[in-house]
Amino acid sequence: MTAAWNAAWREQELAELAARDWDLIVVGGGISGVGILREAARRGWRCLLIEQRDFAWGTSSRSSKMVHGGLRYIAKGQFKLTRDSVHERQRLLGEAPGLVDPLSFVMPHYQGQFPGPKVFGSLLRVYDALAGKRTHEYFPKAALQYLAPGLKEQQLQGGTRFFDAVTDDARLVMRVLGEARADGGEALNGLKVLELTRADGRVIGLQAEDSESGQRYQFTAGVVAQATGAWADRLRKQDGGEHIRPLRGSHLLLPAWRLPLAHAFSFMHAADRRPVFVFPWEGATVIGTTDLDHGDDIDLEARISSAEVDYLLSACAQQFPHAGIGANDVLSTWAGVRPVVASGAASLKPSDEKREHVLWTEPGSVTLAGGKLTTFRLLALEVLNACAPMLGKTISDQGGAVFRPLIAEPIAGLTAGQQRRLAGRYGCQLPLLLPLLEQIGSDCVGATDTLWAELAFAAEHELVLHLDDLLLRRTRLGLLLAHGATEFLPRIRELCQARLGWGDARWQEEQQRYLSLWQRCYSLPSEQE
Questions:
Q1: Looking at the domain assignment, is residue 78 inside a domain?
Q2: Beta strands in 1-124 (DSSP E)
């Protein structure tokens, strides 16, 4: 693996990477893109990933954080998607504990409301059968009130508990990317692809611009795989057929003490009968999600609207009427754009669009459109199978584990839970974190589970180009701490400025940029103007 990921390494290596001939260049640094890179690297392909902003910058850091099979897909008859998803969920739970962890969900049932206990139980029997194990259980009203105090009691019949999983989606991207790099794959962020290079009716590479210097580079490749999410229509040759329908999903984050939960709660919003969730995540409580057409420029960071805030707060008030949750309780917000393949029916509601993916191909290029976080490994294999004939290669196997087993020695000063968490997030890179733990110690940042040493690690090894990379994706401090972690910026500067190679003027510029971004896109709309 290349030594420390830092700005100096990036500047030294960029020209050299552009001079190589690649089997595969992956465009897009979200979970789909890093999954493709990981599967190509394990097979010894000469492969490079290029990301226009930052790894996980788009949907893959702003999802609902759930690794799930999708119960509603069963109701829509998408059994294969559900089966694949629950199998991959179980795989990830087994391979990456501490990063992907089980989460119990409770669906309360009220008199006269759909779905009732019998219908929902029938869906869960299919769901469990697809996963190969039974995990759901029905609780009558008295037992449910003990299991889930604070729920709306009027006309409550009982509730059904089932299990899915939860993750830190941005750290999942970084873990998969770390595995790919350990197998010889290369990756750079801050490189925007301007156009694909074509010759004799075939894609032979691409031209990219460095966001830091403005310099342009020409890359050559046997095949280009595009996993650009909401940008999937931008570079490919379009034939007027299928296209991406960008849909926005927004979330509110509350301090856990304002709404402490032991389970995730899934229920239907009274306004439109859409499923919404309230669930524990990273020591806080999330309310989400919305699902509506995103009409803003996709090159601008997505942000929640006032109407979405009201929608999510009303969902919380509907289900937890005595909690009294209001806008003043919100720590932060985030909004992501889902790249859903449009069905072609203009009148179809966003929530009714299917979540199936498609591949669009032309000679020398494969574009992945749509897809789910949970099934990223299967999507990667499908893309490689489409790319291989263009390279004169074959994919003879279905791939092994995404994450190699990690045998970690006990780390002095850390609890078993902390060690599990770090092993899950850093995997094969964990040995690089140990010297920093010895030097900096095992203190956490504020009331979060994030260690100060993790900030130093990211600054040294994870190609942080801007402060928001560090505080919104490498760590989640900008979401989990009040006012975007403003109170902690002096200590973060002390720890990270030299490691990032930034002078005082650069730090001040980055801090101002970050706080402006947080105010505009990660706070409440009333604070965004």
A1: no
A2: 21-27, 47-50, 66-67, 100-110
